[in-house]
Design goal:
20 strands; Fumarylacetoacetate hydrolase, domain 2; twelve-stranded mixed β-sheet; mainly beta; 2 domains
Length: about 280
């Protein structure tokens, strides 16, 4: 399935003729009272959508796409997880800004604020325009069930699905998490493609253009740590919950964007999303 969240928190199944609105299926989700669970209720219960009846079909061109995950408990991100990106980060002072750039085994996984999450239709709103703001396109993993100390060979069973992630970044000397967590600096979309439709996440073409200019173009086979290894490593530090998001790292070709730019990000077997850039 391709599961979209759109317009005024509607939920739909994406098909060739548009988004089939199945919002009524949310009535089948378990009821919760305070304190609310540390997971996304829909991602934990995707089975409610399998037999859902559509109330209408919305053309994709008329839908405002939101993040397919409404309530991620945490957003984990893998830095410098492509060798060529590590090389460009070390070579370009505009990227490293005097910071020590370590390969992923030394750098570890970092966290982005959940308040940074937006969907493709909401766009990126840049802050600190006096500094360089870069795009970083990534394969995003959405966790489907609770797990801790997961073995790499078992990791696929903990994945709900995949989407495109844009790990927007302000360049500077501060901590990574600080510079990557302003509002709208984590774009997820255009929808969630369930894991059964992506049999090999380790062999997906991924790319981004800015105003039609090619910037990043690579394949997930070039990841230093692949999907299974990343899930295993993350789960050795954190308990993973449904709706948690793991950004797998960006390839070479990162570059600046400015208000008025339009990014077009593409991921094989998932789709593409158009994201407008504006000033906050």
């Amino acid at each position: 399935m391709r599961i979209a969240r759109f317009d005024d928190n509607r939920v739909g199944i994406v098909r060739e003729d548009g988004i089939h609105d199945v919002t009524s299926a949310l009535d089948g989700l378990p009821a919760h009272r305070y304190p609310f669970p540390a997971h996304d209720a829909l991602i934990a219960n995707l089975q409610v959508l399998k037999s859902a009846k559509a109330s209408r079909v919305v053309p994709l061109a008329k839908a405002r796409l939101l993040s397919p995950v409404a309530n991620p408990g945490k957003i984990m991100a893998a830095p410098v997880n492509y060798t060529k990106h590590l090389e460009e980060a070390l070579a370009d002072k505009g990227i490293h800004h005097g910071n020590l750039v370590s390969e992923i085994h030394k750098a570890g996984i970092f966290l982005k604020a959940t308040s940074a999450v937006v969907g493709a239709g909401e766009g990126v709103r840049l802050v600190h325009l006096d500094r360089r703001n870069d795009h970083e396109v990534e394969l995003a993993i959405v966790i489907g069930k609770k797990g801790r100390n997961i073995q790499p060979g078992d990791a696929a069973g903990y994945v709900a699905g995949y989407c495109i992630g844009l790990d927007m970044t302000i360049r500077g000397s501060e901590d990574r998490s600080f510079r990557k967590s302003p509002d709208s600096y984590c774009v997820l979309g255009p929808w969630l493609v369930t894991a059964d439709e992506v049999p090999d996440p380790g062999s997906l073409q991924i790319s981004i253009t800015v105003n039609g200019e090619p910037r990043q173009n690579a394949n997930t086979r070039d990841l230093i740590l692949g999907v299974g290894a990343l899930i295993a490593w993350a789960s050795s530090f954190y308990t993973l919950h449904p709706g948690d998001v793991l950004l797998t790292g960006t390839p070479q070709g990162v570059g600046p964007v400015r208000p008025g730019d339009v990014m077009l990000a593409s991921l094989e077997r998932v789709g593409e999303m158009r994201v407008a850039v504006s000033a906050a």
